[in-house]
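Agenda item 2: pyridoxal-5'-phosphate complex prediction
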Amino acid sequence: MTAHLASPTGAPFFHYQAGQLQAEGVSLAELGQELGTPLYVYSRGALAAALASYQEACVGHNVLVCFGMKANSNLAVLKEFARLGSGFDIVSGGELARVLAAGADPAKVVFSGVGKQAWEMQAALKVGVKCFNVESLPEITRLSEVAVALGKIASVSLRVNPDVDAKTHPYISTGLKENKFGIAIEEAPHAYTLAASLPGLSVVGVDCHIGSQITEVSPYLDALDKLLKLIDQLKTAGITLKHLDLGGGLGIRYDDETPLAPKVLLDKVFAQLQARGYGHLQLVLEPGRSLVGNAGVLLTTVQYLKHTEARNFAIVDAAMNDLMRPALYEAWHGVLPVAPRATESTLYDVVGPVCESADWLARARQLALAEGDLLAIESAGAYGFVMAGNYNSRPRPAEIMVDGDQFHVIRQRETFADLIRGESCLPD
Ligand SMILES: *Cc1c(COP(=O)(O)O)cnc(C)c1O
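Presented output:
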């Protein structure tokens, strides 16, 4: 059981009691029985604790934490973070609609993304978002035109690409020269001059987002150093900024990673800002994964145990369409039996029923299993449900929020009617 004690999802929010895995005060076995599987289960306490770890690290400093909501955009999650004072980092008009539906304050919303369309800019200008994180020269021009047509001024921050190696998976590394994101830092002064000259824009900040699942301080400090040099340069050119946005990207523990605590990173960032004479700048952060990743599990039921010459497979009722990270990034997720067995364990690949060899959730795990057993796939609170789809005509799972000894269905399981909604056949 030591593996369970050391699990990333971790006590006190997910823990064993009398040989049964619980989320806070709720038995996962009972949840699975009552609501069926696959099922996403989040802990309200874990969400609040993760946000508090940022807020406590920022006491005495001017910081706006904007939840990178693409990691988990359920309305209940958004509303909880809004209530606790968080802002939001959005990347689409759809995400804007969600934060508004959750009652969030648009003045705490930053709008990121490389491909904002005019309608998305209009919607964000109408509600008055804090700023647009602009990623290219043509976007600067378009945003100004859209703002002028609406009789508005768009606050802008330029997302610069500092060309630092975040030392993470290539698919989630975003701050290298060859990535599609941001404006190359050498071109940034020119881009700022352009932005400052346009009638529809007010230049307010600078931002970067160098990647995800980052576990080291140095990439952030390298990026910060480059941003501060740019700010120095802009000051000489008469452009002054109000905020500096370091993006998100802090890693979590999936397996044996040592995650970087927000305080460890932020103490260094605040010290740098002070030392370089920018203590007055507002710091904006856009954490996604680190606020929600270990606040959720994906519950699934073992359907079949299939023993072949080469491998043993535990075929479960969750699949790559429900949790895409293993298929997409070869991501590692912990697998916990909800009611561990004392019987001998075997090496299993935990796989779904979808017709793709990429449809696996975990490989080579030592597990003692029987048909019908419930498993909790750990660290599924970030980039889990949001990436779910309907491949193989599989309805997306329900989402549950546990709160103490209560639970709430925060999204119903999709039905067959949901699957074909909007489809129609050709006329006879
Ligand atoms: C995805 C994203 C985030 C959140 O990243 P995490 O690694 O989940 O913290 C923040 N900012 C931007 C611009 C993003 O695209």
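Discussion summary: Confidence is low (pLDDT under 50) at residues 1-6.
Owner for follow-up: CH.
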